[in-house]
Amino acid sequence: MVDTEHFDMLILGGGKAGKSLAMDQAKQGRRVAMIEAGLIGGSCINIACIPTKALIRSAERASLVADAAAFGVNAGQASIDMEAVARRTAEVVSGMVGLNQKAFDASGLELVLGWGRFVEPRVIEVEGEGGRRRLTAPRIYLNLGTRAAMPAIPGLKRAVPLTHVEALLLDEVPETLLIIGGGYVGMEMAQAFSRLGSRVVVIHAGLRLGEREDPDVAEEIQKLFDWEGIEVATGARASLVEGRSGGIVSVTVDDGRIFTGSHLLVATGRQPMTSEIGLEIAGVALNGGEFIEVDDTLRTSAPGIWALGEAAGTPMFTHAAFDDFRVAKSQLEGGSRTTADRLIPYCVFLDPEFARVGLNERDAEVAGLHVRVCRLPMDVVPRARTMSARRGFMKCLIGKDDRILGFAMMGERAGEVVATVQLAMLAGAPYTLLRDAILAHPTMTEGLNLLFAGVPQLRD
């Protein structure tokens, strides 16, 4: 019989929200155990945000070399050493894992490596290298995360396809990479591998890329892919997969088209890791059978149990998960912070980047809001001209009270520029604040002066 160990707090899962809360509470003197299956620092550092952006950076450098002549630089013919690309990506990951491990050690939390599951309503059993342990605490936080979804397409599992995880480990450039799924991950991987030398085909069931965005954004992304030679098959729902990724693999879509390549990558979304861990034993209810049901303080249906991050329905961004930590910390300290009405920006790391915060035109229409829309091509921004980064545009939505309701940008450094607009929105400032601000010249952010100078005046 294994004795049950008692802690002040248990955290199941060491992603951004969980590890932040664990370290914070351990530093305050609480006895905290964080249970993690093995990804020190969470999926963002190990298999998601950080390594994928490291890969994308290598692809960007390849593109810079290929285009060097346009800048008056004779760089010669570039070649891709995919083993070196993978090695650099791995080094970035290992460095950040090391930093996280040092931070864990310094905080005083107890890291319990192994798979955890509920065996009693408030007891988690962990199977790890150190054997079996049973842990309990008056406060339990679930930070379970998500995994790449694998759709039920005949032949798909037998083809042993790549997900973004395995794609990061490739030591050769795929000759032809088929990508099922044209969401944000699929688009980022498509451009990266195209620039590394693969012929890329995106097989997307939707009618356009960037389906969550306004049509002008989708059109700009499609133009970019056309210009880079990336084939996009829209309205193409995969119905059969034959062969094996890494050899010869083919995808048949429901209208009869067949696409053949050397490698297959699946990027059809993510699913929460909420099965087979005994949530029903703990009394934790799921919303729609997958995501954990929580209120705006992240409390679950089970007393003394909270859920953080993606598996709790939080938008699938690391910065959103970090705010879940802030909410949990606020609640512990008697504060009032909740998840209600959060203003969460995001960025798609294409080149040029796409970033958005707040509403788009479709959102405003659904909400029945009257908005003024202003659009500025990046081509007129002086910094864009000096960088030969003239693709894309900025767009803003302005309400009747002159406040900014939404901002979108497809252009160089969009992920940085969006933060400036977000701060103005958080302050509840009118758009004239950015229109009239003295912004450094020549910068991409200076384009905000030009954008907001073009906002139509209210009509009587």
TrEMBL record:
Q: Short name of one Pfam family for this protein? A: Pyr_redox_dim
Q: Which cysteines are joined by disulfide bonds?
A: 44-49
According to the UniProt entry, its GO molecular function terms are:
flavin adenine dinucleotide binding; NAD(P)H dehydrogenase (quinone) activity
Is the keyword NAD assigned to this protein?
Answer: yes
Record: residues binding NAD(+): 181-188, 269
Binding of FAD, residues? 53, 116, 316-319
Which residues does the entry assign to the active site, renumbered to this chain?
441
Q: How is the cofactor bound?
A: Binds 1 FAD per subunit.
Which cofactors, if any, are listed as required?
Answer: FAD
- Asked if the Swiss-Prot or TrEMBL record annotates the protein with the keyword Oxidoreductase, the reply is yes
- Where do the Pyridine nucleotide-disulphide oxidoreductase dimerisation domain residues begin and end? 344-448
Q: Which UniProt keywords apply?
A: FAD, Flavoprotein, NAD, Nucleotide-binding, Oxidoreductase
What family does the database annotate? Belongs to the class-I pyridine nucleotide-disulfide oxidoreductase family.
Q: Name the chain's protein.
A: Mercuric reductase
Q: Which organism is it from?
A: Sphingomonas glacialis
